[in-house]
Design goal:
Layout (H helix, E strand, L loop, with lengths): L4 H9 L135 E2 L16 E2 L30 H7 L7 E2 L3 E5 L5 E5 L24 E2 L41 E3 L2 E3 L5
Antiparallel strand pairs: 1-2, 3-6, 4-5, 7-8
Length: about 300
């Protein structure tokens, strides 16, 4: 069930992104952008920004062409545009990573950490920049989303109190928390669960949720046999698109969900190709994109749609 608050939520989030087209600071000087592949657009400078044509001394693995820096990472051939051209389809420049609230994880570091030829958010198992495991749907962050009472799964922090969202794994008969100490119990404790998510939760969380998922990390994916199944992303460290059997099933929240509508040419979570007959993806919130360079400053590109930077 698609909620009408999607439009309102998006309007609030996009009211002021990237409102400085000339990329200047308060004194009129050019400033660098961060969080978007390729770094700033100021070639020929002497700063430490890993840009093409500069004279900086990069120590973070940049491989830009045309500069005079001391790069020490030869793993990928970088054209200076933020897209790696060797070893698979790229998303980020290692010298200009995508961060999650100031922390860089595996799904934003510009590297093919699991060696499958896909880098960062081009990797099906990456749920966003707040994900430290490219090889599975689990985020790989110790303690992340291991709470029996879940909050917004995709904002980069777990635990109650900061986004108005609440969902108990112990109240889900599908038993998604079986492997993380949150087995289904049901009973009177579930009588206190809210019948509807707070509007604050929907407004805050939905813009981070990929199509096909609810706010709590329960996503509909292809089961590999021509059908669909709802899986809890953080249910097992081996849960992946190629190992759906390792994933625990779950029940989606009808009140905070971004339903994937393939008939409207949406690219669903876990998919790499648009539905037949579709030439361009449809996005509920941000613009369509191929890389983060197509999105506003600090936003990221997932499932060919722009998403706002998570607070982490």
């Amino acid at each position: 069930m698609r909620t009408k608050t999607i439009i309102a939520a998006f309007a609030l989030l996009t009211a002021c992104p990237a409102d400085n087209p000339n990329n200047t600071n308060d004194d009129g000087a050019a400033t660098e952008t961060s969080g978007i592949p390729g770094g700033d657009n100021n070639p020929g400078d002497d700063d430490d920004d890993s840009t093409p044509g500069d004279d900086d001394d990069d120590s973070n693995g940049g491989t830009n062409t045309g500069d005079d820096d001391d790069d020490d990472d030869d793993d990928a051939a970088d054209t200076g545009t933020g897209t790696d051209t060797e070893g698979g389809t790229g998303m980020n420049d290692p010298s200009d990573p995508l961060d999650c609230g100031g922390t860089v994880y595996a799904c934003g570091d510009g590297k093919d950490n699991d060696g499958d030829g896909l880098i960062d958010l081009m990797d099906t198992e990456c749920t966003g920049p707040c994900d430290d495991d490219e090889s599975s749907f689990a985020t790989g962050i110790p303690g992340d989303n291991m709470d029996c009472k879940q909050d917004c799964f995709f904002d980069g922090n777990s635990g109650q109190g900061d986004d108005g969202c609440i969902w108990s794994l112990k109240c889900d008969e599908a038993n998604p928390g079986a492997n993380i100490g949150c087995e289904y119990t049901g009973g009177n404790n579930c009588d206190n669960m809210p019948p509807n998510q707070d509007p604050e939760c929907i407004e805050f969380c939905l813009p981070f949720v990929p199509p096909g998922c609810d706010c709590f990390g329960c996503c509909e994916v292809d089961d590999g046999m021509g059908g669909k199944v709802n899986i809890f992303l953080n249910s097992h460290p081996d849960c992946s698109i190629d190992n759906i059997a390792a994933c625990e099933q779950c029940t989606q929240s009808d009140d905070c969900i971004n339903t994937c509508e393939e008939e409207e040419c949406e690219l669903c979570f876990g998919e790499t190709e648009l539905p037949e007959g579709c030439d361009e993806n449809t996005c509920d919130f941000g613009d369509t994109c191929n890389t983060a360079a197509d999105c506003p400053t600090d936003w990221y590109c997932l499932n060919e749609c722009c998403y706002p930077p998570p607070p982490g």
